[in-house]
Amino acid sequence: MTQPKVTLVVSPRERFSYTRASLESIYANTDYPFDLVFVDVCSPESVQTYLKATSQSFKILRTDHYLSPNQARNVGLRYVLDHTDSQYVVFIENDVVVKRGWLTRLVNCAAETNASVVGPLTCIGNPAHQVIHNAGGQCYIKTDFKNGQARRRIKQSAYLTGRAVADVRDQLHRTPCDYVEFHCMLVRTDTFAMTGLLDEGMLATREHIDFCFMVAQTGGEIYNEREAVVTTDTLGLASNKAGLMARFGQLKLPDFQWSDLPYFMLRWSDRWDRASLDHLRQKWNLAEDKYFTKRYAGLGSRRHELLIQPIVQYLTFGKGSPWLEKLLISLERPFNNYWFNRYAQRFEQS
């Protein structure tokens, strides 16, 4: 029996410096045949050099400017739909490492359940595959009434987030759910005939929620295959919690390349975050309730976690300082807006 064809679409999450480790993990630990399309959204020269040296193994689709995650995914998705006969496309971000058997288990789950979407057990941080970030979850729209007015509200809860894999092994089995995340997500390609491409109005956040709503609207089913395991953010919070290193008095973030900073600042800009939340709310006719006000209040939180907080820890010798953190946030936010405007003007003129 012929195996279903699969194409992986690798696209950036927030930076480029883990590209090599991620691709090497995929090729070393994937025992199911696949094609791979790498969407290179203007990566630094060192990454481009590596990609060119290894591109005999995969297709590179390069853009000359930065793209949002859904825009980049659509570049790869269009190629898959137009140039391949793959039954499945797997979106996977460029900071993800995988555990052997991951893709076989995702494909088997889709084939055996007829699911439209399947996500793996997604872990976070170093060491890999030990702490759960996403194991699927519930997410649906509920209508209630306030002052006689109907309100549509998102109700969301995650399964097993923050739990150690070793503590919940009895729960690591295939589970139907309402959503999985784009860190790694297998989608049956014929699903896009009903949903269309990914919504590029979802620039920076909640795009997985939007897409899973679209899939559910078509009657498609979503599963989390917890025996398939990947890990994201191995360069992120877990590394930075170890603190900063000083070399001859020069500030250095562990495993963070400063050449990544321009894309990182755009990717997590207040403007893109806010626009995504506004678009989700308007698209699905949702009330501006606590779900949204909490996220509006948290604009820039990723920048604060990976840039501001480590700097504060360094300057205070690990003690921390709320007032210094607030000060740096107040200085960083205008800079982020300046960078966003500068990039937007350059892109519009190109």
TrEMBL record:
Q: Which SUPFAM superfamilies does the protein's record reference?
A: Nucleotide-diphospho-sugar transferases
Under InterPro entries, the record lists: Glyco_trans_2-like (IPR001173), Nucleotide-diphossugar_trans (IPR029044)
**Family annotation (Gene3D superfamilies):** Spore Coat Polysaccharide Biosynthesis Protein SpsA, Chain A
Q: Please provide an example of a Pfam family that matches this protein in its UniProt record.
A: Glycos_transf_2
Q: Which domain of life is it from?
A: Bacteria
Q: Which residues form the Glycosyltransferase 2-like domain?
A: 15-120
Q: What is this protein called?
A: Glycosyltransferase 2-like domain-containing protein
Taxonomy of the source species: Bacteria, Bacillati, Cyanobacteriota, Cyanophyceae, Acaryochloridales
